[in-house]
Write a structure and sequence with these properties.
It comes from Saccharibacillus endophyticus. By secondary structure, the chain is an alpha+beta fold. About 55% of the residues lie in helices and about 15% in strands. It contains 18 helices and 17 strands. The strands form 4 sheets. It has a 6-stranded antiparallel β-sheet, with helices on both faces. A 6-stranded mixed β-sheet has the order 9-11-12-10-13-15, with helices on both faces. A 3-stranded mixed β-sheet has the order 14-16-17, with no helix packed on it. The radius of gyration is 29 Å and the shape is globular.
Length: about 575
Amino acid sequence: MNLSVWYDLFLFALLSVLLVYIFFTVRITNLHKVYFVFHFFMMLWPLCQFATHIVQDVQLQFVYVSLSFVASLMLASGWLLFTLFLAGDEKRLTPKSIALLFVPAAVASLGTMINPFHLFASPTTDNYVDRSYGPLFWLTMMVIAGYFLTSLVVLLRAVRSRSSSPSLKKQIRIVLWGICALASFVVIDILLNVVLAQFLPIIPGLTSLGIFIADLFFIFVITRYKVFDLVSIAHEDIINTIPHGILVLDEDDAVVEANRALRLFIDIEVGELFDIEALLSSVRATGDSRQFLDHYKRKEQDLFQIELTSNRGGGLHFILQTSPIFDASRSPIGHILTFQDVSQERRLVQELNRQNDVLHERNRSLDRTRLELSQANRKLEEMALTDSLTGCYNRHYLTQRLTREMTANVEQRIPFSFVLFDIDFFKMINDRHGHVAGDEVLYRTAQIVKQCIRSTDILARYGGEEFILYLPCTDRKMAEKIAEQVRAAVESNRVKLDPSAEPVSVTVSLGVLSIEDFEHQYVPDNLEEYLTRLFTEVDKPLYQAKKNGRNRIEFAEISRISDNGTFEARM
């Protein structure tokens, strides 16, 4: 078999690796789910192209050929939808407009799969590996080109919009490079392998290579700029309302966030490294800058500040405050620095000979700054640990909590349980009442569950309409009792969505996993992998509960950890 046949499979494998990388390195949001669908259609093209060369049956070959072009149509229409989300136009979308957006792709896909009178494609020999294209092919290309041109207009409009932030514009420019790369390879593929096919040898994999290169641009934007991180989008609005410069750094002093007011003091962008020693050496300090630097490096918990004067703006006086950021285990993971412009106060102090009333006002201003910083810090910490919609803990917090407790559970043979549940037929609620009503159902369900559990239990949103309960010091019997309380409470709850409409009643399906029998005091080497396996095991009874009719509880078939860390079935 020609080695070029395996080229598309190789690119499919690379795209699969990128999908796995994104899944395990970013916080999964609804917008990430849209991207995953988009990525799936990117992977489908090289896979179908490879399958066309592998199979021998002519009809099956055409299925793969048509499926690859259907994937490209879905890719183009999905990309337009993805572009509208990226540019911030999702609020204008309605279910009807979204449906109309996919109509041209659906019609073209239907014509491609039916292939009437071989108007789309026909084999030039005895199979579809060598094929010629008809009018329907060019119509399909026009539909795809229309989608991508519309996306291009949306992105260019967002780049030129004054309301778009500099960070968003930079992200969109990088995405535009990816689109240009993909379009270039597609045009070259059509020109060489379709228009000039009778004069030149076939060059395989051009479109697949373009898809892979374009995806590299998308991955860079997602991982570098956290373009889909809804938590970052939410807290950006908060810190931009604070009149002082805010600089958030990670543990490596890389800039995670910088608000608009910071531009008055320093020029730095998200992703760049912040050098505090270079900053202190470029300004005049009123106080001991070495002491401030030592405090910064020690990452002591209390606030520390120093007054600085720079040459910016004809002489800028500002107060620099630093405060470390701690995670749930009180380990330092970064810094928050605030820049307060005190130039006007200093001029007044000089003009009024340091009168007491000016000093008093300055102290009040400093107190307000501390309060604002403290409130902003609390909001940031709360948003990092909780789900903004339901108020429950998020999956990240649950993983951190379990990582700390799991070793003690296994060593001391303390039983523990998980209850994974999700709302039955939740998609029907969204389709019938809208996503706002769906959000209300999620919130009300979470609140009623909180009333059923103990103060030591942890309720976290697992994803979408799925929630998970961690029940410490709980065996199977107690876990069953709590799960039944949750099921009954949700079933009896009535959610009022509209004053004129009947209340909505929902049910939940629950899967329960209890670990209560430890053969030895075995501590897993990789706790994150161990937790992933636990989550996988508790997902099985949830699936069984759905399969057996929903609104019921099913139990996992394991209850013990063996001496090598594997799970053993209940006897």
